[in-house]
Amino acid sequence: MAILSCIIFINIILRYGFHTSILSIDELSRLLFVWLTFIGAIVAYMDNSHVQVTFLVEKLSPANQQRVSLLTHTLILLMWLGLAWGAIEKTAQDWSNLSPILGVPIGLMYAAAIPTSLIIALLELRHLYRQFTNTPSRNQQGA
């Protein structure tokens, strides 16, 4: 994030102070932003700090909360696997197209979704396994 901020700041100074800019900074900052966003999604998922709407589920009985949780996490797993599939296809489709200034494959931008979706899908599988086997997670153990 610091690198992204620095290169954008340098380009702003050059653009408004010297009426010139480094063209590749726009493409590089866009690519870094996409990758940082997907890395941030992994971190948010691992910390359980993503947005959750739970006021309806909290009103259910514990057994129904368990059922809703299983359904929700199964759907989340399927969504991330679908995203991985689509990202693989889109990356392959655009890999031969090069960006005009940096000359890197356009598919590199879409490739950011592949490791993110696979990592979160694996974390979902672990969560579902723990739910089926009643194995508490670290958060539930107090560690």
TrEMBL record:
Keywords: Cell inner membrane, Cell membrane, Membrane, Transmembrane, Transmembrane helix, Transport. The chain crosses the membrane at residues 31-47, 68-88, 100-123. It is a multi-pass membrane protein. Residues 5-133 form the Tripartite ATP-independent periplasmic transporters DctQ component domain. One of its GO terms (biological process) is C4-dicarboxylate transport. InterPro entries: DctQ, TRAP_DctQ. Its main location: membrane. PANTHER family: 2,3-DIKETO-L-GULONATE TRAP TRANSPORTER SMALL PERMEASE PROTEIN YIAM. Belongs to the TRAP transporter small permease family. Part of the tripartite ATP-independent periplasmic (TRAP) transport system. The complex comprises the extracytoplasmic solute receptor protein and the two transmembrane proteins. This is TRAP transporter small permease protein.
